[in-house]
Amino acid sequence: MRTVRTVAELRAALSPERRAGRTIGLVPTMGALHDGHLSLLRSARERCDVVVMSLFVNPAQFGPGEDLIAYPRDEARDAGLAAAAGADVLFAPEAAEVYPDGFATTVSVTGLTEALEGAHRGAAHFHGVTTVVTKLFNMAAPHVAFFGQKDAQQAVVLRRLARDLDFAVEIEICPTVRDADGLALSSRNAYLAPADRARALGLSRALLSVERAVAAGERDARTLEATGRAVLAEHGVEPEYFACVSADTLRPLTVVDGPALVAVAAQIGPARLIDNTIVGADVRAGEPETESIPCNA
After folding, report:
1. Residue 286 reports pLDDT greater than 50
2. Domain containing residue 122
């Protein structure tokens, strides 16, 4: 695996591959790799001839008081894991390479970024995400870019970004990877003390309760939200949000009559965690829902 740190080096590394007609896959990360990231790399390895992983803790998507300084960083560890998972190129730029002196451009996607994470982390969070992803698309010019379903709102936003700006890139969203007890993998799980980790299981169990309710025939969104919130309360978790919204538009739902995103965010000790599930995909067809979140509850 080759490590490059400038845009010029990245383009020089990929130019002959592109001329040879090889498919380039991009896996954007902020490091602190876990099995969720590695699953993205493995998916890219299966689909693409050349796999690029970016490693950049993007300061533009952290708000005041968030964990930019504390965010775990260990490039040597991440590089070893990325190479073992099949990455060909590691792009690890300094902040000044991504945001040079005088940088004054922001890319925003309106209509999808104001709710959920946008409402709680502020508009600047998604502006930071969409700006850096736009830059990565321009830097690497990938044929396919791989992201995780755990960041469900981000996935919807980035699909819209690619569509609206005519990027010649396919956005592939890969399933959330979980521990055996159902907790979604996150770099921030490292912050959790044992008691906090036990409480954090409430997130996946609340989502599972909604899946079960939909499978049993419940369609009222407010009832489904109340079901999930009750499970969170049993685990001593007060969510920032627990919402049932359209999987496509992210607008609040009153009735689940098609694919719905059920999303949750909560502060658990020192870690702010998010999770989600999709329900109602088979409602129109009259097919029964199936549970998708493993849980030992």
Report:
1. no
2. 2-174
Check pLDDT > 60 for residue 290. no
In a domain, 23, yes or no: yes
Looking up residue 253, the CATH number of its domain turns out to be 3.30.1300.10
- Per the listing, tokens 């409602």 go with 283
User: Are 10 and 73 contained in the same domain?
Assistant: yes
Query: Do 60 and 124 have their domain in common?
Result: yes
Collapse the DSSP code of 112 into the 3-class scheme (helix H, G, I; strand E, B; otherwise coil) and give the result: coil
Phi, psi of 252 (to 5 degrees): -60, 145
Residue 115 lies in a domain: yes
Cβ atoms of 1 and 79 closer than 8 Å:
yes
First CA to last CA distance, the chain:
42
Higher per-residue confidence, 289 vs 148: 148
Instruction: Based on the fold, state whether residues 134 and 244 are members of the same structural domain.
Output: no
Which pLDDT does position 157 carry in this prediction? Answer: 98
Residue with tokens 């407010």: 222
Domains identified in the chain, total number: 2
Residues serving a catalytic function are 37
Q: Which residue has the tokens 């946008």?
A: 118
Q: What is the pLDDT of residues 238-264, one digit of tens each?
A: 999 999 999 999 999 999 999 999 999
pTM, rounded to two decimals: 0.93
Closest CA to 148 of 36, 2, 42, 4: 36
What's the pLDDT band for 123 if we cut at 50, 70, 90?
confident
Q: Are residues 67 and 212 in the same domain?
A: no
Q: Where are the alpha helices (DSSP H) in the chain?
A: 7-19, 35-47, 75-85, 95-98, 117-121, 123-140, 152-164, 194-215, 221-234
Average pLDDT over the chain, rounded to an integer: 95
Are 31 and 154 part of one and the same domain? yes
23, 47 contact by CB (below 8 A): yes
pLDDT of residue 65: 85
Q: CA-CA distance, 26 to 52, in Å (whole number)?
A: 5
